[in-house]
Amino acid sequence: MYMEQIKTLHILNFMDMLRQPNARLDGLGPLKSASLVYNYRVLKSIFTKAMEWKVIKEYPMTGIKKPKEDDVKEMEVYNEKEIKQLFEALEH
Predict the structure, then answer these.
(1) Domain boundaries, the chain
(2) Distance (Å, rounded) from C-alpha 85 to C-alpha 20?
(3) Entry pTM
(4) Is CB count within 10 Å lower at the N or C end of the chain?
(5) H-helix or E-strand containing 33?
(6) CA distance 24 to 29
(7) pLDDT along the chain (92 residues), means of 10
(8) Containing H/E element for 87?
(9) Who's near 22: CB < 8 A, 6+ residues apart?
(10) pLDDT of amino acid 72
């Protein structure tokens, strides 16, 4: 498709396709939410520049919300006992 032919519905369909279990070409399951957000940001950047450069007249990202990053794990940190063990191990 040419850029000026791409509408909001095309982008929504693409983003929905990325959420499907068979979206990954390597067959390792569905894309993680971070990958969905990355694709969203790339598309937003492309169409923002296209608007700035007057390549397109309508901004097709209007109404498309950034996907939620719902599979992000909380960072694990050492507790006081583990830190003490770490420093003891480093001394030896």
Answers:
(1) 3-91
(2) 45
(3) 0.73
(4) C
(5) helix 33-52
(6) 7
(7) 95 94 86 93 97 96 92 81 93 88
(8) helix 80-91
(9) none
(10) 63
